User: Fold this.
Amino acid sequence: MNTQAMIHSLPQRDVCPYCGQPVTRRQLEAIRARVRAEEQARLKVLEKQLQEQAAAQVRAELAKLSKRESAVAAREQALAQRAKALEAAAKLKFDEGYRKACVEAARVQQSLQKQVDGLKRRLERKTADDLGAVSEEELIERLRRAYPEDVIEPVPRGTNGADVLHHVRERGEPCGCIVYESKNVKTFLSAHVEKARGYRTQYSTPYVVLVTTAFPAGERDFCARDGVLLVHPSKMTYVIDVIRGALIELARASAERTDRETKGGRLLAYVVSDEFKERIRGILDAIDDLRNVQAEERKRHEYVWGTQEEAYRAIEQFAGRIHGRVRAIVEGRG
Assistant:
């Protein structure tokens, strides 16, 4: 056997990559297998350690979050309690302000009522013309609205006569005539009555009404002078209702003409009497009182509604401020 053959017949050897010593191939494979097993074991240990560290970090973060949530909840509870305290304080302040406002409003209302009473007394002393007159056209319109079954006609302008003729009708049948003269003047003149008296003959009727805003001294709204009725425009229909009703009743009566004329004369005497004047005055005064009561009641309602509206606005304003402040606190802006 030659040298080359002897070399090949010897066992092959390698160098250990870890210690540098010569080893056989089988030994090298065994070393490598052992190293791989040891590396895998170390990797498993390292992986377990990393997992434990990650779990510990997660638990720590969760603990921090839980602690923070508890702190936020406590802060929210404190803010809610503070908001309730602020709301209670604001309500108390509002109630006190509202009470003071009501007291002040009552004082102002009392003062205004005194002024109104004073103005009413002054108004009563003003001339009748300042209380409101009507034109002939308005007079005709009022009569037509009040008595649609009757014939209301103006006397043509330029004609020597009254202003308006009122033909009373009952189911189309004539019952009598009422004559009107309208005077929009500041001062009462006896000449107006004298002129109106002439209409009794001119129109063959005893019922002549002077619609005027000026009255004799000591009179107002209604009176009679020399058989002529003086009536304020605003109270006219209350007097005409009586006269018109009497004319219809007389027309219905089956008595002779002379008897009706006698009764008509007695009716006119009653209409111009102090008794009729006193009773009409009671009606007119009651109407004025009723209108005053209605006006005062309307003013009271308007005042109460206005006060309630102001209170609602104040409540909304205070509530808005409270909610705004609470929102700012919760959002960290105040």
